[in-house]
Amino acid sequence: MIETTYKIPITDGFSPSPSVASFQRYILATHNKVQFPNYRAAFKLNELRERTFLNQLDIHGFATVWQNFEEEMERLFNLKQLSPSESLLFSSSFTERQEAELSYSNVNLFLRKAYKHIQERSMQDLNFVEAKQFLFDFLIYCFDRPVEHSVRASSLQTLMVLLCANKLVDRARYFCRSLSTSDGRILLDVLPFFLCDLFQILDGLGEGPSFGSSLADIEKFRLQCLGRLALHAKCSDREWISQNEFLSLVIQEPVPDCLEWLSVWDRVDRSKKDRHRIKCSGCRQTPIVGLRFKCTNCRNYNLCQSCFMVRRTTSNHRPNHIMKEKQGKKAPKNSLINSKLVCTNSSLDETNKQRTVTENPQPHVSTPIIGPTLSRTVSRSLSLTPSSSQFSVHSLPNSVLT
């Protein structure tokens, strides 16, 4: 058994800025009719990416900006102008570097560099000043530590990389490198921080009640990830996972339930321009744009993603019919999902070589939720004390890391 110790500062009552509150009202009014939390989170994340113009920033550009930012921070470090928590960025200890925090002023310094990079490469006349301020406000809302008035540097990186215009596998590779020690290992102590950051972002989008962001939820998610890697407490001690094992958590089926929304978001994002020369049996739209859902019970019955997300039915089709998610011709193997259930728990059918989804439905949040519903920030002193453990998982090809 793994013993976990968390320490959280209580920050209930922390209100979003007017711009963030306005954005939350908009996405809740626009996407709250979607009955499936994973898809609803995907649509909201796309809105956030477009609102901040981070769809114009790729991971290579982010890495360039971050390197320039670190050089500036190192200059300030040499001049002894950084606080002790900010100076941890240059600690020789990997664990201490993960604990490094940035003051509001230095968060703004990074964002100015990031948006300058985007603006120099953009062909459009956009309001980057407003976008920068909104992203700063959203960062503070999700990750702020009110007493210290700071944001953990790794939390900033997680949000920026998550919203970059790259495929899921590229973002997973970056997370893998940023979480790894010099010998290529990812300490189990670091995994809860990463999960906390992900689910605090979802909480900031109003999805906290659907996914959870409390300490108990984070512990449950951590155990799901370790269970996916077949961690056995009776085996020899092991306090880390390999890079391939981490990548398998994010991009190799079946992914843990708590991370299924990442692959759903990736599919939604890739299929935005897909066109299917088939009429929607619900709204009669032709062609169907985006994802298409084909019923395996009804003959020639297809729904566009808008009709499927609200569980639209006709005289013959019922919500409990099994639906197959269809993407473009170049998309990966399609998945079977039940339109009555939430697409969270995937299992591989070795006979049919198809992903099937069977899981209890999550409650739909029908009323807008503005502001924090749980503790806003997880303590940066969160720690784990792993005991005897061993992993058994088929490693991904080495090419995945390149």
**Average predicted local confidence, pLDDT:** 76
* Spatial ordering of strands, largest sheet: 9-8-10-11-13-12
Oligomer: single chain
**Integer-rounded radius of gyration:** 22 Å
> Sheet with the most strands?
6 strands, mixed
Give the amount of beta strand, in percent.
5-15%
How many extended strands?
14
Class by alpha and beta content: alpha+beta
Question: In terms of per-residue confidence, which ranges show pLDDT below 50 for 5 or more consecutive residues?
Answer: 1-13, 232-236, 333-402
Task: Please provide a written account of the structure.
It is a single chain. It is globular, with a radius of gyration of 22 Å. The model is unreliable at 1-13, 232-236 and 333-402 (pLDDT under 50). It starts with a strand and ends in a 17-residue tail after the last strand. The protein has helices at residues 18-31, 37-51, 59-78, 84-87, 94-98, 104-121, 128-143, 153-163, 168-179, 191-204, 208-211, 215-228, 243-251, 260-270, 305-309; strands at 3-5, 101-103, 150-152, 185-187, 240-242, 275-276, 288-289, 292-295, 302-304, 322-326, 335-338, 346-349, 354-357, 383-385. It has 402 residues and is an alpha+beta fold. Helix 2 (37-51) crosses helix 14 (260-270).
Key terms:
two-stranded antiparallel sheet; alpha+beta; single chain; 402 residues; six-stranded mixed sheet; globular; 15 helices; disordered N terminus; 43% helix; disordered C terminus
